[in-house]
Amino acid sequence: MKHLFFTAITLILLFTSCNRDGGEKSVFDYIPDGTPDVVLVDLDAILKNAGCRIRDGKVTTSPAMDQLLDALTEPEQQEFTDALIRLYPVLDLKQVALAAGYDNMAAVVPVKDLEQIELYLQEKGMEAESRVGTIYVIYGLTVALEGDMAILTESPEQSADWLELSAEAPLSLNTEVMEIFSMEEHTLVAMSMRPAGKRRHRGQEQQPMFTRLLQADVHEQFIDGALTLYDPAWQPIDLQNYILPAEPELLTAVPYDAQGVLVAGEQVDLEGLLRLFEIESGDILPTEAQLLMLGDFLSGPLMVSASPASTSTYLRSLQPPAWVYTGALLREDDAVSSLLNLIAMLNGGDSPRNQTEEEGQTRLRITPDISLYVKQNGNLMTLSTDYIRSSSASDTYAPLMEGASFGIFVNVPYNSETMRAFNLPYAPNLTIVGRDTEISFRFSLNGSRTAILQALGETIQAAQ
């Protein structure tokens, strides 16, 4: 889970860095072609947004930055970040390239002044033998100087391997990749190349490589960006090949007080879409035989929402009746009775027992404390753990979902019971929308007037 969070945050921290004028080398000249993961990050902007103090060329990390590093990174990732921060006086952290591949991880960073960094490394570091020239060991990492670039790796051997591979075939000569990185500048741009599925076993034929590209910007009080998928021919992948555009009618079933909402169109090939992210459905979805029987009902257009229905004392459980869960499906009339029979069977009976009719809604008692309400309005079937009421929430979500295949929305009001339940100083506000060839997102914290990364670090610390 930490790896996923680190990937998400790292992708939010990237910065496009292209060849500079005058024929000088760029960070891409020191990254081997075929490296599966490449991240370019404006670490300077991140440190400042996270509330770190920079004085006389030295960085004092803020508690929020320390919390972000501890919560979102693995130990080896922290090691690189800590070393880069300590090298702030001699490195240009506005253009940091992080790359992982070939059983190796490296950072390529422009130096501020070659003479200055050489004196710094000689004074604070230690020289090490290497087949590629003088290499320094400092702050637990190896630093090699090539032109006006510093290459950081975990050992002298890895440093030599990395330099030899990049000299033989640098990423800068890959026209397809460089075209992607030459797009407009962002705080964040990351490329990850993977086959469509789990890692192959030894002896299996090499699978075609798909590319995930995320571009994002860290603003003062919010983060936004977009993720694009590319096929092996470097063409953007249309999300409609996997999930059709969601029907606007689904939005009429969203409760007015929902704080979490998921909307999706008909799933043409959800398994295929998940495989592009190296995820199998069984890794994230229940696979019990009983739930698999619901697959036919859940593969079509659907909406799922969560609304708080209790005080902070009980909301932390995330279960009904403290929370009201509502779902909506677009189905033919005869699907209602089939679904009710299936739910009743899963509840231990072979017929719809304990059913009552309440003002046009079917009520099915699941437990002594929980009931399921079902309402049919044309082809729209709504299910909820509370009595279904009319809603005007569609006006909020309709503009966001226009032409989109799916959307995920989390919006917790400031000073709400949900905030108190999880001991949050600020309330999350997240929008993720998949439309055409792009998955866009925006994240902020309701109630915060602090820089977004600093507020995020404070929120993570408070929630623990």
Q: What secondary-structure arrangement, pairings included, does this model have?
A:
Layout: H1 2-11, E1 37-41, H2 43-49, E2 53-55, E3 58-60, H3 63-72, H4 75-86, E4 96-101, E5 104-110, H5 114-124, E6 126-128, E7 135-138, E8 141-146, E9 149-153, H6 156-168, H7 175-181, E10 188-195, E11 209-218, E12 222-230, E13 260-264, H8 270-275, H9 281-284, H10 289-292, H11 295-298, E14 302-308, H12 312-315, E15 323-330, H13 334-346, E16 355-358, E17 361-365, E18 371-377, E19 380-384, H14 394-401, E20 406-411, H15 417-421, E21 427-435, E22 438-446, H16 452-463
Antiparallel strand pairs: 1-10, 2-3, 4-5, 5-9, 6-7, 7-8, 8-9, 10-11, 11-12, 12-22, 13-14, 13-20, 14-15, 15-19, 16-17, 17-18, 18-19, 20-21, 21-22
Helix pairs in contact: 3-16
Overall shape: elongated
Helix content: 25-40%
Count of individual helical segments: 16
Strand content: 25-35%
- Mean pLDDT across all amino acids: 85
Main β sheet profile: 14 strands, antiparallel
Number of strands: 22
Class from helix and strand fractions = alpha+beta
Which consecutive residue ranges, at least 5 long each, have pLDDT under 50? Answer: 1-23, 289-293
Rg estimate, integer Å: 26 Å
Spatial order of the strands in the main sheet? 1-10-11-12-22-21-20-13-14-15-19-18-17-16
Q: Report the span from N to C terminus.
A: 16 Å
